[in-house]
Amino acid sequence: MLAAGPLFAKGLIIRRPFVVRLLRRTGTEGKGVRLLARLRRKYGDGPLRLRLPLREQAVILSPRHLRRILAGTPEPFAAASREKQAALAHFQPEGVLVSEGGERAERRRFNEAVLESACPVHSLAPRLAARIEAETAPLRAAEQLGWPAFKRAWFRMVRQAIFGPSARDDERLTDTLEKLRADANWAFLKPRRERLRDRFLASVRERLAEAPPDSLGGLARARATAGSAPEHQIAHWLFAFDAAAIAGFRTLAMLALHPQAAARARESDEFRRACLLETLRLWPTTPAVLRETRAETQWEASALPAGTGLLIHLPFFHRDGSRIPYADRFVPDIWLDGRAEAWPFVPFSTGPAGCPARNLVLFLASAWIAALIRGRMPALPAGAGLDPAGLPATFDHFALRLKLAPLETSRAAGEEPARPASVDPSFQRSKTWLTNSRS
Q1: Which fold has domain 5-437?
Q2: What's the confidence (pLDDT) of residue 46?
């Protein structure tokens, strides 16, 4: 299918650079969003049932249905779909996302307790902020900042945040995980390398045993229960922190493209978080949310039998220009003025299976960006291919090279001074649209 095919082709578990580059050049992802919009207009709100060779799948087209499914997880809409189980079994077979029943509940409680899901700022924030300052210093001093250097520095911070200083340079641990995630992209279609997976999980357990109390690993060790399988949950944290790095790097590019937003971001953590959320709206790092019905479910048009796969195509909900007036523009204020809540933008999912690390990720990525732009102005190279009036559906962060010029130099070169915050003009145009779309 044109709409969903690119999401799986570029890799749901780890991105394939060549495919990302190809999708960027062809604009295929944008075509997929427009196709789903046409199908919604032709067939209604759905779900749109697809009869595929292995089993029936249904594509979700209505905001109302999206909310129902996310609120109704794990029953009757299980997060542990067969596709997800097949993929994540390559490196975290006992992770919370592929667990069910009592095991899922126990592992969810463990994740929420260690990641402090309900807290905007984690209790380890001062220690984590110090790690961020240390690891961003070399990036600030470099002439250029590309994805490889950004990612290496980010994961030096991440390994210390989870396991303590001794893990800072243990790149073999995260490199092994990347190999397993590359296998996971193939889900059913590639045999599991169980020996490699077991060695990786054993390494996580060893690091966990040595983690100091003032680390996420130390908290995990203290709060582990008989069935929480902490090494499997930590494997997922490491996987998810890669998506957080991608979001942070892309947000830097958006601040380079929007100097006034960069000026506001220097002064406000709340606005930096809004910028991160807006970047995730534009390019969701989890572009497909998968669920599976555990019982027959009734919908307006028909019933879906138990065992039906459900696909929530997030780029469609986030970038449908027929319903979102600012679909292809960077408008972080929507996360401050209520528009994002009125429409189902769900970069971290939501409901009982929403990301338990949302606040932690936003804190870390916001602090990381704050450190990089302090006294600095990110700048894009010529020919970056990012038009603020119409941002592309695919963002090839692998090829991007940014500059972090001293702020005074940037102003001398013509950067506009910061202006008072204002509501985007599309807000007035979107009031009627929001009212009509709530159903």
Answers
A1: Cytochrome p450 (1.10.630)
A2: 86
